[in-house]
Known about the structure:
With about 425 residues, the protein is α/β, with parallel strands linked by helices. Helix content is about 40%, strand content about 20%. It is globular. The two termini are about 20 Å apart.
Amino acid sequence: MNRDRFLALAADTAPALVLQASYANGLGIIRDLGREGVPVMALDPNPRALGFASRFAAARVVPDPAYDEAGFVAALEAVGRELPQRAVIFPTHDEYVWTVSRNAQRLGERFHIPFSGWEAMQRVADKQEQLRAAWRAGVDTPRTLFIDSAADLASPEVDELAFPVIFKPAESLAFKRRFGRPVLEIPSRAELEAIYAKVDDCGTLMLQEIVPGGDEELYTVGSYLDERSRPLAVFTGRKLRQHPRRFGTCRFAESVWLPDLADAALRLLRELRFHGVSQVEFKRDPTDGRYKLMEINARHWLWHSLAAGCGVNLSYAAYRDAIGRPFMAPPQKDGRRWILTLKDVLDSGREIRRRELSAPAWLASLRGTTVDGVIALDDPLPGLTNTWRMAKLATRRVRGHRRSGADTAGAGAELQKVDEVEL
C-alpha cells in the first residue's frame, strides 16, 4: 500500500501503526487488522522488513529504539503529525513496548496506546517481579532462587536444586543481546561458579530448575485485557515443535482450549494490573501434571496469528477497545494448527534423518494446519519474498562452500542452516 492510499483510508478509519514488522509477529498484526479494514502503517529500522511487502500496509523506516530511543520517539511523533487522526500503536518486541510505555504521556497526545503505562509495565519487564506476582496469585512456577552475588551460590538451597538448571535474567534484553539466547544452561553443580563468573555483571539472575518434558508441553495463554484488567479476548494453545528444540522459538503449534490455565494466567495479569495484549507461557510438568510459569511477554508473540485463525483476533480486540468501541471476542475454535512452513520442513527433515522424528508422524501432524506465519494466499508477496531471500542465501552458502573445496555433504549441511537466519 502506498503512502497516499494509506492517508486517504486513514481519514475515514482510525489507522494502526505496527512497530517492527520484520517477521511473523508484526506481519500477523498487519494481517489481523488489514483483513478487518483497518489502514495500517508498518514502521521498522530495516528497509527490507518483511511486513513492508504486505498489501495491507504502508511502510516507513524509523530509528531503532534499542540504540536511539530519542530518535525513534521523534520519528513516531513526526508520523503522528502527518496522520489525519490518532492511530493505535502496536509494538511487537520488548524494546518497542518499553520505549512507548516510558513515553506514553508524551505520545498519548497523538496516538491511542492500548497497553499499560510504565508504572505497571516495568513490573512485567522484571522477571523477578513476574515470579513474585505468580506466587501471590497462586500460580505454579519452577523452583527458583534469586542470585545477586557469588556469595548466594553457597546457599544450602542451591545444593537442593535438581541439575541441570538454567540462569534466567531478571532483565532480558541486554542478556539476549550479549549471549544470543534467553537463558544459559548449567549442566552440573560443579560448573555453576564458572558459568556465573561469565554473567555476574548482568544484575539479579534467577537460578531455576528445568521443567521436564518435550516442546509439546509448552502452553500459551494469549489475551487482551482492558484498562481495568478485564479480558476481552482470550486464547490458549500449545507449541508442538520449536527451532531449535528445548529453548527455541515456535515453528509449529495448535489451538487447544484450557479454561483452568486461562484462569491462572488472568489471575496473574490482574495481580500485575496489566492492560494490553500478552502471552503468558507455561510448561506442563509430566511428573505431576502441573502447569508452571515460564514467562510473561507483554505483547504479541510469534505465533499469535493462530488465535485470529481460531476466531480470537487479539489485535482487533485491542484496536476496537482503543478507539472506544470494545467488543468481547467469541470462544476459540479448537484443533487448528499454525506453521512456519519453510522452517518446519528444513528442521523436520534433519530430525527425520537423525531418527528423532518419523516421516509418517510428521506428515500426520500437518493435518488441521490452517495458518502459516508468513505465507498467505490473500497477501502473497511476504511469503514469496521470504522464500526468494532464503533461496538466494542458500545458493550463496552452497557456492561458497564448494569454492572452499568442501564436499557435497558439507554443502548440504550449509543449506540446511539457512532457516536459522530470521529474515
